[in-house]
Amino acid sequence: MNDGSIAVEVGSVEIREGLWTKVKQMTTFTLGQLCDDSGKGLLDNVCVIQVDTLSMIQGGFTGGSTTSETSCEAVQKLRATLVVRLKPIKEKAGTLPWKSLIAQASMASVQLMEHAYWTPDPTFTSYLNYGAAISEVEVDVLTGATTILRSDLVYITVVEGAFVQGVGFLTNEEYATNSDGLVIHDGTWTYKVPTVDTIPKQFNVELINSTRDHKRVLSSKSEIFY
């Protein structure tokens, strides 16, 4: 935009994996080389727009643990094109705030809109991810009540929800049936789903760096589902 704001639309839908956050980060990472502060203040200028079939007729699908990787690689490709267009103005002006750079580019009739379509290489195949989790749990031996005091995990995006779901599955949720095979735990009076009290009091999540994989998008790791 002429005011320096950045609108991004990708052919995927946000389904709690942090897609929009990753797209914003990739946009900032790619365009940051044009900023005097390496893009530290650029993130606030980025807005991800909800996809629709009018402007994104070949948006692909959302799923298969590939959504973030494909969307971010497409963003990286199109932003790289914009960098090539804007670099001459940046080099000529020297130190120049982002908004001033875009204003000058607009006045010079530089095209500020770009699109990219990316499909994975045939070698873009499956790979293994390893995760680990350790939980510190307090058990009341008189009442049987349990409290998760602390949990240390090694993945950030979907793991919080998946972990709580797993806790519910292993501790509270019991799929009980009678002799005829009919479900008798058919409501929340008998089937106990996780609540806010199920979340660990101390929830530590960390992404462990690994060897760079040049076949991945910036060595990205796909989502892990438990």
TrEMBL record:
GO molecular function: iron ion binding; oxidoreductase activity
Recorded superkingdom: Eukaryota
Aldehyde oxidase/xanthine dehydrogenase second molybdopterin binding domain sequence ranges: 2-200
UniProt cross-references to InterPro entries, sorted A to Z: Ald_Oxase/xanthine_DH-like (IPR016208), AldOxase/xan_DH_MoCoBD2 (IPR046867), AldOxase/xan_DH_Mopterin-bd_sf (IPR037165)
Protein name in the entry: Aldehyde oxidase/xanthine dehydrogenase second molybdopterin binding domain-containing protein
